[in-house]
Amino acid sequence: MRLxxxxxxIVACVLAIRAGMRDAGQGRxxxxxxxxxxxxxxxxxxxxxxxxxxxKLFIMACLLDLIFQIIVLRWIYPLETFVVAFILAIIPYVxxxxxxxxxxxxxxx
Length: 109
Known about the structure:
This protein has one domain (4-108). It has 109 residues and is mainly alpha-helical. It is elongated and about 55 Å long. Helix content is 87%, strand content 0%.
């Protein structure tokens, strides 16, 4: 069950690299910057698009953590499940998507 700490961030990074390359091809601003600075309507579009990319991974991270808790701890801690899934799936996705977009933009020049 400890492999989830390796595989989930790797899968999130692969999805983020793909999305960052798509952002660079469409001429969008960096994902994290756009999420923080843009208007409310554009932010909703960005969040829904990123959820389409990483939503299944987040749900899978929650399920794996629940299985781990049942097997090892013999109890379910829902808040811990969401925190672990957020850390393993969402955080790497956000940072790697912005970074990959910048790298693609640099190589395009």
